[in-house]
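Hello again, I could really use a second opinion on something today. I've been staring at a protein lately and its backbone has me curious. Can you walk me through what the tokens say about the fold? Take your time with it, there's no hurry, and the full record follows here:
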Amino acid sequence: MENKNVSLKVTATILSMSLLTVMAGAAIAPALGIIKAHFSEADGLLVQLIVSMPALLIIVTNLLFLPISRRLRTRAIATTGLLLYVAAGAGCFFVGDIYVLLFMRALLGVSVGLIMPLSTGLLAYYFPPEEQARLMGLSAAMNQMGGVVATLLAGLLATIEWNYAFLVYLMGLVAVVMVWLWLPDEKLGSANKRGIPFQPRQLLKFHPSVTGMLLLMMIFFIFPTNFAIIARQQTTLSTEAITMIMVGLDVVAFFVGLAFGQMMHTFRKSVKYFAPAFFLLGYAAYLLPSELSIPNSQFSISFILLGSASIGIANGVGVPYLNTIASIKGGKNSATTVMPLLSAALYLGQFVSPLVVMPLSKALFGNSLTAPYKVGILLCIVFLVQVWATRHFQSLPPAENGK
């Protein structure tokens, strides 16, 4: 019983870090309009970089994670990352210059780059393969919960003053205390003698999961970068209603993450296709009202709700599935090999999504309002082909209790 309690404390500590990682950009998104108004004389690109700047530094830090893990133990890495997370995130509250603000956001990216590989890789380090599907599902669920809490709380704080939104990063202090109390002090990098994680042979070994994560994030981020704009022009939905639909998508993904362990056992042969298939259903549902010339009515709003729920399911299944398969293949070295690569692919997908989707939309579909959704469907087909071509080489863990 004592060992079980220790295991629960370790698990809770790791999951607390999962709660924080998505907040790097999502926490500030609701306040971006207010921030833009405050820095009205600044270039619009600089304001957009407030959200995207952390992603670039997360990628760089992820790719340097193995050398860092060879010099520092897990508790030191986690503590450094979390303290920097709180200082760089909440420290923006005191900043009045946009260039200093961007520098602080870059430091926030470094902090998440240290935290994120631990938030998934330690699950592979401490727990056997048969438990990892359930735990990766919980990790993804906590990530989604972090997005919901951060979005609502930051939006509320921003109504006081633009800089109050950054106080949401003080949530990291809870994880700091949990790390100090319960996280074991391991030396992860010393067990991995295979060099840096971004060597060609490492990419070759883990390319199905890494490529899958890149495609998944590129497809998913079509939603947050386009949905509010398109829905506002297509329907009579209020801004508040659109916001609630977007938050509701995260809620759907949260519950799917909680159920993911059971889904892996129930749909062992087909779960690999769930993410691309539900993304395809989601963007097709968004397209149908305009393609069928359905008038602006409750019927067309039903398609929007169906599409949002489908995309929530796809995201809720896709991330833990890719993490689970990769952690099984990476074994105890996952935290220093494949998890930094997956984290880098995740944030690279977020960053390049609009850079790829918008030019393709104009080139293939002109000025059509729903062109991004059409590109999303094309990318879903690419994702399905990638899954079919690579996932049959992947092996799942044995089912629990002989299931």
Summary: The CA atoms of residues 160 and 223 lie 28 Å apart.
